[in-house]
Amino acid sequence: MNSIKNKIKALSDAKQPDYILFYLSATLIIIGIVFSYSLSIYTVDYWDYNQFHFFLRQFITGVLSIIIMWTLAQIRPEKLIPYAGWFLFGFFLFLMVIMQFLPSSLVTESGGAKRWIRLPGVSLSPVEFFKIGFIYYLAWSFHRKLLALDKISFKQELKVLAPYGLVFGVAVFLIAFLQKDLGQVVLLATILFVMLIFANRSWKLFASMIVIAVSGVLALILLFPHRINRVQSWWSMVQDSVLSIMPQFIATKLRIEEFPEPYQVGHSLNAIHNGGFTGVGIGNGSLKMGFLSEVHTDFVLAGIAEETGFIGFLIITLILFGVIFRIFRTSRRVKNSKYHLFSLGIGLMIVVAFLINSYGVTGIIPIKGIAVPFLSYGGSSILSVAIAIGLVLSISRDVPKEKVALEAKE
Questions:
Q1: Which residues contact 291 (CB under 8 A, 6 or more apart)?
Q2: Does residue 299 contact residue 57 with C-beta atoms inside 8 Å?
Q3: Residue 171 CB: number of other CB atoms within 10 A?
Q4: Cα-to-chain-centroid distance, residue 304
Q5: Which of 44, 68, 384, 393 could form a disulfide with 73 if both were Cys (CB 3.0 to 4.6 A apart)?
């Protein structure tokens, strides 16, 4: 009797989502709300905003995001994932297309590119939500067409993958050319590449993709002067350490003379150095006072490092990687291959965005305007990642149930 009761209880508990993932994600959102107030002091003063201008907006968005995660977590995946996935893919792809034709009163431009649709009280960045839909499209299609394929020739493989190249090409045109956002394209390309690995494709395909990706990135850089300047500015900062280990005749050819080092990255490194081991205290950072612009958005990691130090930054990073671990855990354990690939893609979306941003603010790679998941100020970023986590939480409802069922059979 006790054994039956225990199995019934286990099956009942199995329907619960991964609450650890929910709590870790909610914690990061709360941390982001705190720093939206602490790091935006100079911006508030410069534009003569109310001192709670950014805090209140991030607080409202953060609370809404937590509610979204909790609500989606209560829905069975088969009743949620297909509808949400196709909506995010189709609707936001449509928005990315039409926003180029909308009048300036309805869109917000950055560097001559239309990236946000202006709504009453808020601005919406379609690409943040499209990324989730793109991941679902790949997971759905790979599940149907690739995973069941036996070994085929390289030419046949290229024919099968041609539609994905077309869809990705459209995304590259809309994001890299029209929105001038190369960072998001690199992120999507990385997700596509890794998901293909888990779809058991041949090594010839991956070698070809690497060549195409490198050539494509170089072309996208060379076609836009502002990207060339950004790369040259980054190279001027790191060239001494790299060229010191190269032969003199090569170093002479590659050296850039009298090119200004990146202003933002220099102050970002100063902020990290100033934070030391324990930080200067929340609210006491000095580099945010006009030296490091956009510190509450693209350079939030530098601001956090200054105010919380290495210890605080390490704790926040561990929480973030705890979120990523729980997502990959769900991906590994779920039996449905479509959900497996989708969860994998969401985990990659978060970890690649974090790495691109963190490598950029430390000068390891040229800086790219990619938000840090959960932490950067911005409604679209936090809402989209909340939706992504909510969908994974829904999928996680299936994981324990199937595990219990397998144990019962044994």
A1: 267, 270
A2: no
A3: 21
A4: 18
A5: 393
Give the pLDDT confidence of 20-36 residue by residue, as tens digits: 999 999 999 999 999 99
Alpha-carbon distance 201 to 157, whole Å?
A: 8
Domain borders along the chain are 2-409
Query: What pLDDT, on the 0 to 100 scale, is given for residue 254?
Result: 76
DSSP H stretches of helix in 99-247: 126-141, 154-172, 182-198, 203-222, 225-243
Contact (Cβ atoms closer than 8 angstroms) between residue 117 and residue 126:
yes
Assigned token pair, 38: 């602490």
CA–CA separation, 378 vs 62, rounded Å?
10
Q: Any bridge partners for residue 107, and if so which?
A: 117
- Within 10 angstroms of residue 103's Cβ, the number of other Cβ atoms is 6
Q: Which two tokens stand for residue 67?
A: 């509610």
Q: What's the whole-number mean pLDDT along residues 89-118?
A: 85
Measured between its terminal Cα atoms, the distance across the chain in Å is 19
| CA atoms of 62 and 374, how far apart (whole Å) | 9
Measured from the Cβ of residue 372, the count of other Cβ atoms closer than 10 Å reads 27
Which residue matches tokens 């390891």?
364
Given a contact cutoff of 8 angstroms between Cβ atoms, the answer to whether 63 and 384 are in contact is: no
* Residue for token pair 């530098």: 302
Cβ–Cβ under 8 Å, residues 302 and 287: yes
Residues with Cβ within 8 Å of residue 95, at least 6 apart in sequence? 117, 124, 126
Comparing 224 with 373, the larger pLDDT belongs to 373
The residues facing 116 across adjacent strands are 108
Yes or no: say if 174 and 99 are a contact pair by the CB < 8 Å rule: no
Chain center to CA of 293: 21
pLDDT value for 249: 72
Q: Which two tokens stand for residue 24?
A: 């870790």
Reading the block at residue 223, the tokens are 């076609």
d(C-alpha 369, C-alpha 331), whole Å: 28
Instruction: Tell me how far apart the alpha carbons of residues 171 and 181 are, in angstroms, rounded to a whole number.
Output: 11
Instruction: Record the tokens describing residue 303, joined without a space.
Output: 């601001």
- Which residue type sits at 77? P
Q: What is the pLDDT of residues 256-303, one digit of tens each?
A: 776 666 677 888 888 898 999 999 999 888 888 877 777 888 889 999
